[in-house]
Amino acid sequence: MPPVILAVGVGLLVLVFFVGIGLLLNRQEKQIDDRVERYAGQRGRGEKATGQESQGKKTGFIVQQVDKAVARKGFAAGLALSLAQADLKLTVGEFLIINFMSCLLFALLLFVIGGSVFMIPLGLAAGFFVPRIYLSMRKSGRLNAFNGQLGDTITLMANALRAGYSLVQAMEAVSREMPPPISLEFARVVKEIGLGLSHEVAMNHLLERVRSDDLDLLVTAINVQHEVGGNLSEILDTIGHTIRERVRIQGEIRVLTAQGMLSGYVISFLPIALMIILFLINREYIGAMFQEPCGWAMLTFMAIIMTVGFISIQKIVHIDV
Q1: CATH number of 167's domain
Q2: Are residues 237 and 159 in the same domain?
Q3: Are residues 22 and 62 part of one domain?
Q4: Do 127 and 147 fall within a single domain?
Q5: Which domain holds residue 38?
Q6: How many domains, in total, are found in the chain?
Q7: How far are the Cα atoms of 7, 28, 43, 53, 61 from residue 57, in angstroms, in the given order?
């Protein structure tokens, strides 16, 4: 293929990629009914939210068609929940379109760099997993930030209850005084209760969006107290102390296991980095590995043992508290 055609193709694909992302992300802020439809689930108790926007929303025709096509698919509910947990204002269709464009972009880039059709499957795989890895990292980072703020939040709620606030007023104080992401999540709980949902349902929706063991303890305590009564402020004080001690111990464990985690990343990704460097320095030397069956067998074996080693190291250094 002539280099001019490849250059023009790459340029057009990059242009379409970023223009598409700009069009998808340049959206107005969701209205209250859209938030309730996505997070509170007006579709019924047994039906999961799919992230499909209301009919009056101004989205592209392609996005609407993709949303309709995947609305009843089994993976749509889980993907929509993951987007909500990561706080990405995207529908399932929008995310799938970005994922598809990412596959095309990586496949073409690796084909241009490698000059071989064997690089296209690798590019497609990379383009498929990169957006999902970003989604997972955003979920994990948001969950860690939430857990780090939960101890202070419980203390604030306990003090507000002692001052005579109701539970809803205490959560509203959290939404005003605490930083994101915990302020945003409690603000959603207050809005759901204000729109007619019960405390138990609203708190369970919060637990669906934030899969935290510490939050599960808090939600269980609030629901039990709402049913049988009791001094909620004292219960929250006990829970807050437990959570703060757990966060402190987890921080100490992360410090002690940091060297092992870093060693795992270095050992796992150093061969990949060396392969990329050799490919850029001497393409013919490393290219033989992608042209012979023996080379593909070696790459497959290398990928398997590297994956097993990386997972084993992560299991060793990851300690639950």
Answers
A1: 1.20.81
A2: yes
A3: yes
A4: no
A5: 3-140
A6: 3
A7: 37, 9, 18, 6, 11
What does the block give as tokens for 299?
């790459």
pTM recorded for the entire structure: 0.67
pLDDT tens sequence for the chain (321 residues): 455 455 555 565 555 555 555 555 554 444 444 444 544 444 333 344 444 444 434 446 666 767 676 667 777 778 888 888 888 887 777 888 888 888 888 888 877 776 667 678 878 888 888 888 888 888 888 888 888 888 888 888 888 888 888 888 888 888 888 888 888 888 988 998 888 888 888 888 888 888 888 888 888 888 888 788 778 888 888 888 888 888 888 888 888 888 888 888 888 888 888 888 887 788 778 777 777 788 888 888 888 888 888 888 888 877 776
For CA atoms 71, 75, 77, 80, give the dihedral sign. Answer: negative
Do 18 and 123 belong together in one domain?
yes
Q: How many Cα atoms sit within 13 Å of 277 on the Cβ side?
A: 6
